[in-house]
């Protein structure tokens, strides 16, 4: 448990590029807020959807930068510091080591989503029912965790491919397009909806919209389970990839080439 | 005899591929059949030039690489199939600036690796304090590592390698780039470890370091062990020789080659030390080559000229120069 918690927090401080206050506020709090405003005003102009759609969608989306890049950084940045060999010499479970690293990023994501929703609502005049607040907190937490597990999967790819940041950048763009946060899912072609269904935050965004609409936690629960399932799948994929790539690095000396 | 490390016919071939349309595959035999027996509590040196196979050998023994063939056991556990057991019992320290989390303090680096290496929570605080004291970083442990000098980083590397009280410690060129005072402190720390019963496998380029510290030394070159014994035993490789050292300014490669061909000369090499060069000429003990060498250096400004008995370094040069250092390269 200590490896999961204490280890995760120390690794976060060691590896996260945006841990300084100015970087955190500028990159993770202010930038998503402007993104929210951009899409809300664009939505008004085009008449695609109302402000609520964009405020809730972008609040869920705001967690992705910290979570997806955080998860990737949690593994891939070991190469930057030259510490990967020492981590791999640990006799302890890789799953515990690396899943523990995802937790602080998920916490980051939750904080950012709550901030974006609160400030976005105040700026654009959205009233959220008080009864929806606990459910929204759970939804943001599940969405952030799912995102962080997705980031870990990308980070695991970083053990094999040096240019993993390229994949992270493309993934963020895909999430903007396919998860239904800014483009209503019913406007997307079928295959894009299918792909979006297997990306993190798609179902969390649906759940959050149901909660803000006052539908109650019971109505949002199926979407939340689907989001949790997506996150679990990515966690398992990350664990399998880590095992495979570690074994491959011992066989092919692939980590020595850096 | 209890062995901490046993290796039998250990081999490692690196295979690389370059190009997509017309791929070129290259196989490099980095280690070509190493046999090693290191006793428990022994301080064992692995000496060799760059590319000799020292680091590859260590990485196979510490489980980071799988041998292409051959077997190795550490504390009785197989390095391929019993990795977790091996990892619990070993520490690994390498030289250089990297390998630490620069944004964290030295203390936090140690706290994190204490978690990774399974040091029980109740013992972590005391163990870390002991190690900070041992490596002389007490008082600086809360500073960020990015502000540490290379010597301090090196000492932190050692502290990390010792967190879980390993039975076997691999030290891969720990004194590389460290200033003489820091290197002396480092040697004293390593000697202290051996005195506590920790088995140490040390790779180094520095003969004085190996001679001062190691119970036995293996010289590796071309991926194979070329000689093995105590420092005194290895010096026999240069037995029957005498050494002439000439301080010079501006010796050319052609002149060194010419000296190498003089009657009675066995080896000639030049090392640059600051603004001057030191020409070292090994010759048969029965032949005095001083006059011929000085004649060959006609026109070169010379400094001190000294004749002396062979050292471990001379023996090392003799051993290594007799080896084809280029590992076999196969292109398919």
Automatic annotation (TrEMBL), chain A:
<dbReference type="InterPro" id="IPR000412">
    <property type="entry name" value="ABC_2_transport"/>
</dbReference>
<feature type="transmembrane region" description="Helical">
    <location>
        <begin position="136"/>
        <end position="158"/>
    </location>
</feature>
<dbReference type="InterPro" id="IPR051784">
    <property type="entry name" value="Nod_factor_ABC_transporter"/>
</dbReference>
<feature type="transmembrane region" description="Helical">
    <location>
        <begin position="96"/>
        <end position="124"/>
    </location>
</feature>
<keyword id="KW-0813">Transport</keyword>
<keyword id="KW-1003">Cell membrane</keyword>
<keyword id="KW-0046">Antibiotic resistance</keyword>
<dbReference type="InterPro" id="IPR047817">
    <property type="entry name" value="ABC2_TM_bact-type"/>
</dbReference>
<feature type="transmembrane region" description="Helical">
    <location>
        <begin position="224"/>
        <end position="245"/>
    </location>
</feature>
<feature type="domain" description="ABC transmembrane type-2">
    <location>
        <begin position="18"/>
        <end position="253"/>
    </location>
</feature>
<dbReference type="InterPro" id="IPR013525">
    <property type="entry name" value="ABC2_TM"/>
</dbReference>
<keyword id="KW-1133">Transmembrane helix</keyword>
<feature type="transmembrane region" description="Helical">
    <location>
        <begin position="164"/>
        <end position="183"/>
    </location>
</feature>
<feature type="transmembrane region" description="Helical">
    <location>
        <begin position="54"/>
        <end position="76"/>
    </location>
</feature>
<keyword id="KW-0472">Membrane</keyword>
<dbReference type="Pfam" id="PF01061">
    <property type="entry name" value="ABC2_membrane"/>
</dbReference>
<comment type="similarity">
    <text>Belongs to the ABC-2 integral membrane protein family.</text>
</comment>
<protein>
    <recommendedName>
        <fullName>Transport permease protein</fullName>
    </recommendedName>
</protein>
<feature type="transmembrane region" description="Helical">
    <location>
        <begin position="195"/>
        <end position="212"/>
    </location>
</feature>
<keyword id="KW-0812">Transmembrane</keyword>
<feature type="transmembrane region" description="Helical">
    <location>
        <begin position="23"/>
        <end position="42"/>
    </location>
</feature>
């Amino acid at each position: 448990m200590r490896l999961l918690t204490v280890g995760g927090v120390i690794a976060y401080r060691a590896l996260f590029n945006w841990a300084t206050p100015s970087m955190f506020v500028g990159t993770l709090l202010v930038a998503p807020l402007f993104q929210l405003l951009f899409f809300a005003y664009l939505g008004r102009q085009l008449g695609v959807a109302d402000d609520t759609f964009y405020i809730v969608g972008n609040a869920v989306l705001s967690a992705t930068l910290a979570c997806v890049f955080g998860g990737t950084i949690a593994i891939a940045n070991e190469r930057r510091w030259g510490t990967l060999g020492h981590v791999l010499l640990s006799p302890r479970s890789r799953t515990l080591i690396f899943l523990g690293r995802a937790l602080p990023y998920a916490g980051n994501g939750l904080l950012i989503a709550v901030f974006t929703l609160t400030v976005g609502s105040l700026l654009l005049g959205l009233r959220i029912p008080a009864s929806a607040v606990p459910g929204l907190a759970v939804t943001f937490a599940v969405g952030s965790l799912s995102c962080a597990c997705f980031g870990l999967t990308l980070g695991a790819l970083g053990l094999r491919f040096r240019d993993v940041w390229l994949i992270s950048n493309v993934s963020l763009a895909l999430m903007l397009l396919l998860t239904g946060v800014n483009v209503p899912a019913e406007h997307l072609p079928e295959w894009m909806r299918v792909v979006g269904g297997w990306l993190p935050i798609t179902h969390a965004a649906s759940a959050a919209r149901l909660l803000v609409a006052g539908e109650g936690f019971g109505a949002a629960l199926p979407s939340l389970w689907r989001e949790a399932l997506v996150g679990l799948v990515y966690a398992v994929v990350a664990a399998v990839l880590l095992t495979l790539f570690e074994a491959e690095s011992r066989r092919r000396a692939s980590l020595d080439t850096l | 005899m209890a062995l901490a490390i046993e290796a039998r016919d250990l081999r490692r071939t690196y295979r690389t591929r370059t190009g997509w349309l017309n791929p070129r595959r290259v196989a490099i035999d980095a280690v070509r059949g190493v046999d090693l027996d290191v006793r428990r509590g022994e301080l064992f040196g692995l000496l060799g030039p760059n590319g000799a196979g020292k680091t590859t050998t260590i990485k196979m023994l510490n489980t980071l690489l799988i041998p292409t063939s051959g077997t190795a056991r550490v504390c009785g556990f197989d390095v391929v199939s019993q990795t977790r057991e091996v990892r619990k019992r070993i520490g690994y320290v390498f030289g250089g600036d990297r390998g630490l989390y620069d944004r964290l303090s030295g203390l936090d680096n140690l706290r994190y690796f204490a978690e990774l290496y399974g040091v029980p929570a109740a013992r972590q605080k005391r163990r870390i304090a002991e190690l900070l004291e041992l490596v002389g970083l007490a008082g600086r442990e809360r500073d960020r590592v990015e502000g540490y000098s290379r010597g301090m980083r090196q000492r932190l590397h050692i502290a990390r390698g010792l967190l879980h009280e390993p039975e076997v410690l691999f030290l891969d060129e720990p004194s590389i780039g460290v200033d003489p005072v820091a290197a002396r402190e480092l040697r004293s720390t390593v000697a202290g470890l051996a005195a506590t019963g920790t088995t140490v496998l040390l790779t180094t380029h520095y003969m004085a370091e190996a001679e001062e510290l190691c119970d036995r030394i293996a010289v590796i070159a071309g991926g194979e062990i070329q000689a093995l014994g105590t420092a005194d035993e290895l010096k026999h490789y240069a037995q029957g020789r005498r050494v002439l050292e000439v301080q010079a300014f501006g010796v050319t490669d052609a002149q060194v080659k010419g000296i190498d061909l003089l009657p009675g000369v066995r080896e000639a090499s030049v090392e640059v030390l600051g603004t001057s060069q030191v020409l070292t000429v090994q010759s048969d003990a029965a032949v005095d080559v001083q006059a011929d060498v000085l004649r060959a250096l006609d026109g070169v400004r010379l400094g001190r000229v000294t004749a002396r008995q062979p050292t471990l370094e001379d023996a090392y040069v003799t051993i290594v120069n007799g080896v084809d250092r280029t590992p076999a390269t196969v292109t398919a």
